[in-house]
Amino acid sequence: xxxxxxxxxxxxxxxxxxxxxxxxxxxxxxxxxxxxxxxxxxxxxxxxxxxxxxxxxxxxxxxxxxxxxxxxxxxxxxxxxxxxxxxxxxxxxxxxxxxxxxxxxxxxxxxxxxxxxxxxxxxxxxxxxxxxxxxxxxxxxxxxxxxxxxxxxxxxxxxxxxxxxxxxxxxxxxxxxxxxxxxxxxxxxxxxxxxxxxxxxxxxxxxxxxxxxxxxxxxxxxxxxxxxxxxxxxxxxxxxxxxxxxxxxxxxxxxxxxxxxxxxxxxxxxxxxxxxxxxxxxxxxxxxxxxxxxxxxxxxxxxxxxxxxxxxxxxxxxxxxxxxxxxxxxxxxxxxxxxxxxxxxxxxxxxxxxxxxxxxxxxxxxxxxxxxxxxxxxxxxxxxxxxxxxxxxxxxxxxxxxxxxxxxx
Length: 409
Ligand code: GAL
Fold this sequence. Notes:
Elements: H1 2-17, E1 29-32, H2 34-37, H3 53-65, E2 75-77, H4 104-113, E3 117-123, H5 139-149, E4 153-157, H6 166-179, E5 185-188, H7 190-197, H8 203-209, E6 212-214, H9 223-235, H10 237-240, E7 249-251, H11 264-276, E8 281-283, H12 292-298, H13 301-307, E9 316-321, E10 324-335, E11 338-347, E12 355-360, E13 372-376, E14 381-386, E15 391-396, E16 400-408
Parallel strand pairs: 1-2, 1-8, 2-3, 3-4, 4-5, 5-6, 6-7
Antiparallel strand pairs: 9-10, 10-11, 11-16, 12-15, 13-14, 13-16
Helix pairs in contact: 3-4, 5-6, 11-12, 11-13
The structure holds beta-D-galactopyranose.
């Protein structure tokens, strides 16, 4: 008996060590402060845009009143620059007292009262990237503090640390999160820091310990930034794409839609590509001033449904000829070993008018002899039934996309 009990305990310990926390069965959706609000701490001169409890409360209100929560965007997350410069007398993290006078437990309560989840940012090293206290040497206490505050989602960055220690450190912090007993989504920057330092990435460990992870450079508010990320995911898809699945996702970084750097076409392209990449959909925009066309992109139900497809298979770039790329993602409904597909035809060209593109269903891997029912997810149009031997013609605007769904008929 004793032996069995000891074995049972060992098994339990092993279970707690692994992340499998049952969370993020589909890519997380929500709002993350960084891209739009950065480290603006000047609440005296810029009260509406500084990192403060006001900003997160206002955003929580708008997530509900403007319909984002109803569509699945359910996390409101802080990024860098929320902490005070020093820990408190007990060594606990504390928020900046002037910008977060009510404290983070209260802020978490407010966010929860709206039916939303509360996200926080910290850093595995001695400091956050912007120089605020990091969690190194306080990991267990910080995990407990986050749980006390009602945190549901932690983004853990990796500045000011030795990347060689991350294979041990990221899982360690994850185990403290698990130990709190509170379900907390764990977003890691671990593989991005290993990649940038030329250290081999142990994907099995990343998948086991993180719900999502950054692979590549920070996004900034420009089309060049979006295409560099998309190209990275396409060029490295054999290594990256198979690691995504329910509970564990690649994170190409925030959506820029509604800010300053992307045109309307480019915004539609980012949304479509993030959907086929099974990427987290983390808006980073002023939800008060976003204009209707951009809001409509973020709220496109059919594209969100592709992103949130229950199979959780990340899409791939299946063809690249000149400026024209075709990305496909296997989605439901399925029949035997045949899938339906989301298809993005992406024109990276930046001159002239729309390009004419011919898609051959068979060469895209669509072999279902009864055919596919095709719809255009931006035009909200059913286009009809196509069989594998048929061709399909589309026009794609420069730096734009066509987004189609081919459902098994
Ligand atoms: C970067 C991170 C960004 C943002 C920033 C905050 O390392 O990739 O997403 O969190 O730090 O300082």
